[in-house]
C-alpha cells in the first residue's frame, strides 16, 4: 500500500495513491496534522472505535481499508500522528520516545520511494519509519459494558503488613497518585492489590496490571480471572489471542503498553525492577503514554532501585506473610576460587557445606556468576552426586530441570542468575559462589536470599555468600535484609522469639 499527503485549505490529509501517481507530499515533510472538527451526522464504524479507542496504532495493525480510516479522519473521528518527527535534523520516535541517533537506521523504503529512516528501538512492535502514520481515536468513547456489582472471589486474610499496604493502594488509585509498594520476597504482594482493583472497576476505571516479565503475566492471569469471575480479564503479551479485545481490566507485559495511548486510569507495575524495564527508557515512555494525563501508577518491588525509592511515595511490607524474619546471608571467604577452579578444585568450605545439605536431603541452589563457571563447577560437583544438574538462560531443558528439581529428582541445581526470581521450593538452601562478582548486584543478592524460607513449614534456611573479598553489593544486600527484619519487628509484623 502506498499513500501520499496533500493539502486543502491549509489542512493536510493523507490518502491512498496508486503506484504511478506522483503528486502529494511525503509524510516526512509534513509538520503535524491538525484534527478536523467532528461531524456529528457522520455514521462512524463502531467496531473501529472499539479497536482504536485508547490506543495509538500503525495503519497495518488495523484490519480496515485506508479509505475508511481516512473518511473517519475527514469527519473528525480519527487523528493521524507522525511516527517520527524531525526537528532541526534531530529525529524523535513518537511511539517509544527514542531520540538517540544511533537507534535510527536508513533503508530503501518501497512506500515513500525515499531513503527513509526507521526507529530500531521499537522495531519489535512493528516498524515506525519517517513515512509512517500512527492513528488514534478522537471521536466519542465506547459505552462499555454495564457495570454491575463487581464480585470478588477471595476469602483469604491479609496480614497486618498487607492490610496497611492495601489501604494505601486503594487511596493511591482513587486519588490518582503514585505509590511504591516495597514488599519483601514472600510478603504476598498480589493480595495487596485486590481491594484497589475491585474499587477501581466498580467506579468504571480502566486499570492495567503490567510486568516486564511475561512469566508474571502468565501466572497472574488465571489468578485474577478466578478472583474477579464477572469481569473480562484481558491478557496481552507477544502472540496473545486477546489482542483487539476491550475490557476495563488488562494484564500486559510492559512491551504491550506501547500500543495504548492515554487510556488507563491506573497502571500497576509488578516487579518494576526486573529486566528489561529497569534500564529501558522506552518502556518508561510507554507507561507514561498509556495512562491518562491524570492517573495513578503503583509500582511493586522487593528490590526497588534508588531512583524509584527516592522519587515515589512508599509503603513497605517489611515482613513475610508467615511472620518469620527474612533469612540473613552469611559471608564465607574462600580465597582465589577462580584459580582453584582452573585446576578443577573447589574450596573445602563449599564442599563441606554442600555435603551437609545433600546428606540432609535439602534442595539446594548454587548460584554462579557465569555459564563458564557453571560448566566447570557442575562437572566437579557431579563427582559428589551424579544427579546434580545446571541451568542457564539458553538451556533448552530449563523448564524440565526445574520441574525435576521440584520433584526432588535433582538434589542441587547450579544456576546463573536466571533463577533469582520466580522459583520457590520449600526448604530450599542457597549458596552464591563468587558472590563478589559484579553480576551479583544488591538487588540480585536480595532476590536470591529471598528464595529461602518462603514456606510456612520451613521458614528458615541457609543463604551463604562464598567470596574472595566482600563487595559493596554484598554488604548492602545484607544490611537491607537486616533493616527489613528490624522494621518488621518494630511494627509487630513478626512472631515473638
Ligand atoms: Zn520507536
Ligand atoms: Zn518511507
UniProtKB/TrEMBL annotation:
Residues of the Helicase C-terminal domain: 345-497
Molecular function, one GO term: DNA binding
Domain of life the protein comes from: Bacteria
InterPro entries noted in UniProt: DEAD/DEAH_box_helicase_dom (IPR011545), Helicase_ATP-bd (IPR014001), Helicase_C-like (IPR001650), P-loop_NTPase (IPR027417)
Gene3D superfamilies per UniProt: P-loop containing nucleotide triphosphate hydrolases
Residues in Helicase ATP-binding domain copies: 170-322
Keywords: ATP-binding, DNA-binding, Helicase, Hydrolase, Nucleotide-binding
GO annotation terms (biological process): DNA recombination; DNA replication initiation; double-strand break repair
A Pfam match: DEAD
Listed name of the protein: DNA/RNA helicase
Organism: Lottiidibacillus patelloidae
